[in-house]
Amino acid sequence: TTTAAPVRVDIDFSDEPFALAAALVSPAVVQLDTGTGLGSGVIYDSSGLILTAGHVVDNVDTVIVRLADGSSVQGEVVGSHALSDIGVVRINVDRELPFAALADGSETAVGQLAVAVGSPFGLDQTVTAGIVSATHRILSNGPNNVPMVQTDAAINPGNSGGPLVNLAGEVIGINSQIFTESGDNAGVGFAVTIELAKLVANQIVAGEEVQLALLGVSTTSTSDGTPGALIQEVLDDSAADLSGLQSGDVVIFIDGEPIRGSSDLRAAVLVREPDSTSTLTVIRDGEQISLSVTFGRTG
């Protein structure tokens, strides 16, 4: 028997890292035609599961999926989640499909090179390159108040749902939106972090209502600029309240993972399972203490 594995290539691209990344992921990148618009997606399982942006498929039951080899098949929309902007499509074919590897999102770093692949303006298999500009950007004024990977790799209409990958061709985010005044790329694009995408997709595929972990606090930056998330308010009877977290505490670690600010804390909470337990390390009155918290759930 053989075990399915992500796409691999035998060509030496050691001097052209962008070309290697594109070669690794492009066979798994698809174009989605909803009948009213085009989007992108990436096959992440050899059985035919496709990750895409939720807003691409949120009002349809089926889509036409154009594969990298040029063939087209009908896809079933398994489901979508508005807050995270993640959707899942399933296709059934009589062969094993090439699929992309999903990265360990905790290793995504500011400044690392990144490649976006998709179908901007209907031009399928378009590859653009840039860097990771931020790893946990919160768009507080947008519809998706979740942590995003920010990139300057060109992302344009039609790229939504396509993968943002590292130089190993591993998916680090699902392209979601751009910040622009003209409607075209302005060097500020955003992709849903792969950790959040995986968490949401797993629930969608399982037929569950998507629920995310909830701490129950409002936070801000520390007054002196030191790393950490300053707790402003703790909601009554929330997970934070039950753990003993207090207003004025500064969260500096969660399960040993450094928390540099409010965005880091929100990102770390959202990628954990509802009802799971973590250890928060906080500074209280100049002393470092540890608290065990069992997260609540949204919805």
Structure characterization notes:
The protein is mainly beta and 299 residues long. The chain folds into three domains: 17-91, Trypsin-like serine proteases (Thrombin, subunit H, Beta Barrel), CATH 2.40.10.10; 105-205, Thrombin, subunit H (Beta Barrel); 213-297, PDZ domain (Pdz3 Domain). It is 13% helix and 39% strand. The strands form four sheets. The protein has a six-stranded antiparallel beta barrel with strand order 1-2-3-6-5-4. The chain has a six-stranded antiparallel beta barrel with strand order 7-8-9-12-11-10. Strands 14, 15, 16, 17, 18 and 19 form a six-stranded antiparallel sheet that branches. The longest helix has 12 residues, at 194-205. 49% of the residues are buried. The model has no long low-confidence stretch (mean pLDDT 89).
Which terms would index this structure?
299 residues, Thrombin, subunit H, Pdz3 Domain, 3 domains, six-stranded antiparallel beta barrel, 5 helices, 20 strands
